[in-house]
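sorry to bug you again but im stuck and you know this stuff better than me. theres a chain ive been looking at and ive put its sequence and its fold in token form underneath. id like you to explain what the token line says about the fold, in plain words if possible. anything you notice is useful, everything is just below.
___
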Amino acid sequence: MSSQDEQFPAAAPEPAAPSADDGMTWWYRWLCRIAGVLGGLSCAFAGLWNCVTINPLNIAAGVWMMLNAFVLFLCEAPFCCQFIEFANAVSARADKLRPWQKAAFYCGMAAFPVMLSLTLTTLFGNAIAFATGVLYGLSALGKKGDAISYARIHQQQKQMDEEKLTGTLEGQA
């Protein structure tokens, strides 16, 4: 090893930042993260409240809701789980997922306790977690096009429809 190598040791590869090709702006990404944290809070409190009963389905739904809260905190806000060694690794892996995958995962997680026990507590407790999945799903659809391209497409369709109409009328005459 040369003296220069000893002065500047090789840097460890940094974890990959969220992919820029997913089409999410910085403010929308933060909106999704904040919605995930709020969804985790609502799942945790409603799940705890749901467990204070003697109905076994309500208890199972409450436990599932608290598990949802833990997963949401782990994926969206790993700094809330500093006592868990693998929190940053799970968050980095969750950041690599495509938005539609996160949407399906979060919506599925939030729908299960509601199907298990349909009560107001499970419905309202999972609403924000489900909304987080919806936000990720909307980002998977992509950006809206500009008005000029839509006007061109509309004009082309109009011309094609007129050509078909005149061709049909000439064929009948």
Summary: Residues 35-162 form one domain. The helical segments are 3-7, 26-50, 56-76, 87-95, 99-116, 120-125, 127-141, 147-172.
